[in-house]
UniProtKB/TrEMBL annotation:
It comes from Brevundimonas halotolerans. Gene3D superfamilies: Nitrogenase molybdenum iron protein domain. This is Iron complex transport system substrate-binding protein. PROSITE patterns: FE_B12_PBP, PROKAR_LIPOPROTEIN. Residues 31-274 form the Fe/B12 periplasmic-binding domain.
Length: 274
C-alpha cells in the first residue's frame, strides 16, 4: 500500500513539473479523459472546446475518428496518471480497472459509461448521456439527427422481400439477434442468417449445407489478424466468391456508436446486387 501511494505521489510531482501541458483549461472548458478507444470516438465527436486526453489507441487504424485524434494528448489510463491529470469528466466503454474507477468515484469525478447497444435507440441514449456530461447537448442532438438520416438512406422500400445475409468476421464469428449488427442488417432490409442470439462461431459444415444469399464481411481489412480464422477457410472463401458481399472496415465495428449506421446504406447495396 505504501509503495502504491508513493508511486502515485511521485507521478503527481513529476507531472506537476511538466509545465503548461497540465495548465488549467481556459474559461468554462472541462478536462475530459477517455479511457478506451470507443470512448475516444464519443469524446472527439462531442468534446470540441474542452481539453481532451485520449487513450493510446485513439489514432490506431481501427479508430473511426483517428484523423481527428491528431494533436490531442494521449494518456495511459493508469491510476497514477489519472490522479495527476485530475479530469472533470471521464468517459469509458470498457476501460479502467476497479481500483481506478473507485478512485474517481471517491473524488467525485463524473464518470459516463457507454452501454452496449442492441439497437440504434440505445446508441442515441449513449450519445445523449455523453453530450449532457460535456454540456454539448446541441451537438449531441445534431449527431443523433445525422445518424437517423443515414439510417433512412439505407431503409428498404415497402414490400421488398428480405434477402438472407450473414455477417462473418475473419476470425469466423457471426452476430445474431440482440446485437447492433443484427439491427443494421434489419435496417437495411436484410434477414439475418445467423440463426442464434448474440455472437457465436460459424460452423463451416452448416454454412456449406445452407449458405446465405449474401455476405457482410467484417474485419477482413485487418490482413494480419485471424489469418487462420474460419472466416478465411477455403470453403468459406468459395461461398463468398459465388455470392454478392460487402466488406465493413474494422473501424466501423469496434464500438456501439453512431457510425455503425454508416453500415446500413452499404448493406442496402446487397439488396440489388447480382
Amino acid at each position: 500500500m505504501r509503495r502504491a501511494a508513493a508511486s502515485v505521489i511521485a507521478t503527481v510531482l513529476l507531472l506537476a513539473g511538466c509545465g503548461s501541458s497540465f495548465d488549467e483549461p481556459e474559461g468554462d472548458a472541462l478536462r475530459v479523459l477517455s479511457l478506451d478507444q470507443c470512448a475516444d470516438q464519443y469524446v472527439l465527436a462531442l468534446g470540441e472546446g474542452h481539453e481532451l486526453a485520449l487513450s493510446p489507441r485513439a489514432d490506431d487504424p481501427d479508430s473511426w475518428l483517428r484523423a481527428e485524434a491528431a494533436g490531442h494528448r494521449m494518456l495511459r489510463p493508469t491510476l497514477e496518471t489519472v490522479v495527476a491529470w485530475a479530469p472533470d469528466v471521464v468517459v469509458r466503454y470498457w476501460g479502467g480497472d476497479a481500483r481506478l474507477l473507485a478512485q474517481l468515484e471517491g473524488q467525485g469525478v463524473t464518470v459516463v459509461t457507454i452501454a452496449d447497444a442492441a439497437d440504434f435507440a440505445s446508441v442515441e441514449q449513449s450519445i445523449a448521456e455523453v453530450a449532457e456530461a460535456l454540456d454539448r447537448q446541441t451537438e449531441g442532438e445534431a449527431l443523433i439527427g445525422r445518424m437517423r438520416t443515414t439510417l433512412r438512406d439505407g431503409a428498404p422500400s415497402d414490400g421488398a422481400r428480405p434477402l438472407t445475409a450473414l455477417y462473418l468476421t475473419a476470425g469466423g464469428f457471426t452476430s445474431g439477434s440482440g446485437t447492433l449488427i443484427d439491427a443494421s442488417l434489419r435496417a437495411a432490409g436484410l434477414e439475418n442468417a445467423a440463426g442464434h442470439a448474440g455472437f457465436g462461431a460459424v460452423r463451416v459444415e452448416r454454412l456449406a449445407l445452407d449458405p446465405p444469399e449474401r455476405f457482410a464481411l467484417g474485419f477482413f481489412d485487418q490482413t494480419r489478424a485471424d489469418r487462420r480464422g474460419q472466416g478465411r477457410h477455403p470453403l468459406v472463401k468459395r461461398l463468398v466468391e459465388d455470392r454478392p458481399d460487402v466488406r465493413l472496415p474494422a473501424a466501423m465495428l469496434t464500438c456501439p456508436a453512431w457510425f455503425m449506421a454508416e453500415a446500413v446504406p452499404v448493406l442496402a447495396g446487397l439488396r440489388d446486387a447480382r
